[in-house]
Structures are given as C-alpha cells and as structure tokens.
C-alpha cells in the first residue's frame, strides 16, 4: 500500500514552497495549453505519498478569494493532488469565473496540506463547542448525504465558534442550526500552509 502522509511536520518548508511553485506551474501550463503537467522526476519522497491538499488562490492586492478547491481524504500522491486541485481552483471553482493567464501573476497561491481527519466524539452542542479549537482545527461536518468543510484559515473570518458552526452547516447545504438540532458527525483535521 502506498504510504500516507501521517505527520504534517514531515513536510519541510522547502518541500512546501516547492509545492506552491508546482501549483503555479500547473495552472500556468493548463491555461496556456490545456495540458495537465506530469513530473518525470519526483524531487521529494513525501510527494509520492498519498496526501490531501487544498489550493487557495487570493488576489495579492485585495486579499480576496479567487478560487479554492481541495481533497479531504488522501487518495493519490501528494504532488498529483496539488496539481489537480491547483488547476481546479483556477478553472472549476463554481463561485468564480476561471482565472486568466494575465491574472495569474496577480494571485497568491496557498497550498494547505491536511492531516487525516479524526472523528470527534461529543455529547451535546456545548460539548462540541468546548472541544473544537479555533484557528487550529479544520472541521468536516457530515449529516446523511450532506457534507461541508472549513479549513482552519476560515477562523480568521469567523472567529466565533457558534457562527463558525452555523456557516459550516450552510456550506454543507443544511440549515444553520443543524449542529444544534441533529448531532451531525464532526471530523477534525489540522493543516500546514505554504504560500
């Protein structure tokens, strides 16, 4: 079985910065030629392990989000996950028009590597709020066929735990009080972010 990335500290700053560069090259090549790059040589062992990543594009001038797509569960080598999510963030995020080649230099690219999600056991909504750690935890909320996730970065916009949970319900296509009424499954993960 292919190895998973278990510990985020496995990934050095150097590897992370190289992943950001890889994301930029992948987007550029795709916008120019419609081709998905493939690496002949994989420069780091960790890149061959299965990893889950999110690629976030933001305007350098305004900090506004311009695209964000990712994987929650690792199912392919990390470098392929980053390439694929980078292209998707630039061209397939339904909230935005696709990024143009001219616009690419104006964007900051962030690559977040996710730890494997762990199920959070909780008894009541209060207990849930006590157990989640703002600015540290990424959350996945799951109820029947609905699912949504927020990366830890989202705490910067929604630092209030109750508001965070309500928005997460909405993101999953559920009413904002779903976390109070229905006891959804909650999974927690950490991220390591490079930009």
UniProtKB/TrEMBL annotation:
Recorded hits in Gene3D superfamilies, A to Z, give: Hypothetical protein ph0010, domain 1 (3.30.700.20), Hypothetical protein ph0010, domain 2 (3.30.1490.150)
Q: Indicate the secretion signal residues.
A: none
Q: Which residues does the UniProt record annotate as the domain AMMECR1?
A: 14-195
Pfam families the record matches:
AMMECR1
- Superkingdom, according to UniProt? Bacteria
Name-wise, this protein is Protein CLV39_0863
User: In which organism is this protein found?
Assistant: Hydrogenothermus marinus
